[in-house]
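Figure 6 in text form: structure in, sequence out.
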């Protein structure tokens, strides 16, 4: 499942709704859905900053797929290339905090090369099996 949205802050909520629906479709619990939506919001905001530095008007691509018992969510170009770990401006601090929040929510996050020089964020949630229903003994 793939969603493409314009690189505008007003469309980040659409990405949140999309990943929430995808996660619920795969049976992810509501607490994890909320964490996922927050992480994707931060990733989309990063992608908006990447797109702002480009000459063309590419959309932000958010993909959700099942792979080996996990739900994978990827936000394309969510991290700017060569972001310094030391914040020298308020904007640098916000960038760093967004990435730190994603890592705090999903410690196993993967950063993979983006399509045009940025870095995509790949989040993974286990699709553990549902516990078997237990029958109550007859009284």
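Output sequence:
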């Amino acid at each position: 499942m793939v969603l493409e949205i314009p690189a505008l802050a007003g469309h980040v909520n659409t990405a949140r709704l999309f990943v929430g629906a995808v996660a619920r479709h795969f049976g992810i619990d509501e607490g994890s859905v909320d964490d996922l939506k927050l992480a994707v919001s931060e990733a989309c905001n990063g992608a908006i900053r990447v797109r702002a530095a480009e000459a063309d008007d590419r959309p932000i691509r958010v993909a959700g797929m099942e792979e080996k018992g996990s739900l994978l969510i990827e936000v394309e170009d969510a991290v700017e290339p060569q972001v310094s770990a030391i914040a020298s401006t308020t904007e640098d601090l916000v960038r760093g905090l967004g990435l730190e929040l994603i890592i705090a929510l999903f410690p196993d996050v993967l950063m993979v090369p983006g399509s045009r020089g940025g870095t995509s964020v790949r989040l993974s949630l286990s699709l553990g099996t549902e516990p078997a229903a237990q029958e109550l003994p007859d009284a």
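Caption detail: The two ends are 48 Å apart (CA to CA).
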